[in-house]
């Protein structure tokens, strides 16, 4: 079929979900979307997507059988080798799919391929078939802009008491020594092995009534938003259309590896990622490699959230840049002001100790805006020691709370897994052993004031319920935009990578949250008193609640108009059948 666009996500639901939504957006513009996944993520794809007439799910077997029947079965490899094998099998399977698809004189190749930057190495496979690629970023624009600006600024000589403006970026994002130290550490190899990176200057932001805050930058008032015009506008960059007068353009990514699992070494046989972690201070951001080999860039963000950061990156890159998000479920955009039910549109194979109905019943019993929702990512989180401090803080606070304790909490994650291979539920057999941290006895001590969920939690339901008044989060991008879209202020506890930039965006620029102060020495635990104070400030700050509500109201009419315009511009661009990038 002509007019096919292939989409290749990275492993993990945080990457799968946005790209599944992108499949539907592309299909609505009369292209066929071919969603290429490893078979071990098959259970994450809902039946509604499989039944879509213009979406095809192309599964690559997790393990391609040997052609030699005499070859004996191989033992299960260790996690890192298994991750290498996943990349090898993906490359081999992808090339086989493309060979089958493109053979024959009357077979038109795909118009282009949209690649998650964490899978940017697959561009070499598409290049063999002369198929142009578009780089897709699951996160927002702020972290990419910050990394790029730090590379250009070469801030290695920054002093502990210095605040350095970054040319072209808002003054609220001025650089501090803590930002540089955070960048130099980056995520530990193969997963998070400790607490949040640290830096000097810990201490709480301004008191209620003076805006949000973090370790750096001004935090007074809500930044004025330039007028948007009607109907959004096209993307920015050469051949991408010009913005309307007085308007900036949309789009751009976070860095590549480092938001999520850092890529492994290149596989021994075949293509693979050769990068690890975020750039060192002054180093070139790895995502620029993806930009170089792509004909354009698509980013999971919109103008209403990140206008100056999108413009900054668009000014640096000589290719079309489209902000096409936030790519959340269609029901999210159609249900402003009502409670969402995750089970209706998200497939999960992970178990939970509680049902959605029980969560609703508990939330219904609490006053409006009183509940603190506490949840970190499924792949990253605090250490066991930090979880203990968090438990003490939640007990000391008088605020009602929902705390999601993931399986393996406090332990470094292994390579990303999918579907049934992911840990199921959470055992109470050990608080610090194989199953990770669990706050034994806490339910009895806090009573009905707290609800502890171990395993999967209906996050969209919780964030959309009127009783929820704050979100203690690691500031992964998906969680951040889900909270912003429902007007829930954020108490930021970033763990690694782009989460630190997202936290600064939330607290300093958007001013819809606070940043928990991080000790200057990473060996020093975060203070219980700082967490308690942060909770109290977040829940009691009426000005912040107002700003969060005002920001969410920008999305009350549905999917952002700027992103609609960007997707239309992408459609028109690829319809011209652009050639693959030469780099």
From TrEMBL:
Q: Where is the composition biased (Pro residues)?
A: 70-79, 197-209, 254-284
Keyword check for Transferase = yes
**Which keywords belong to this entry?**
Glycosyltransferase, Transferase
EC nos: 2.4.1.-
PANTHER family referenced in this protein's UniProt entry, alphabetically: GLYCOSYLTRANSFERASE (PTHR48047:SF131)
Q: Which CDD domains match?
A: GT1_Gtf-like
Instruction: Give the protein name, as stated in the record.
Output: Glycosyltransferase
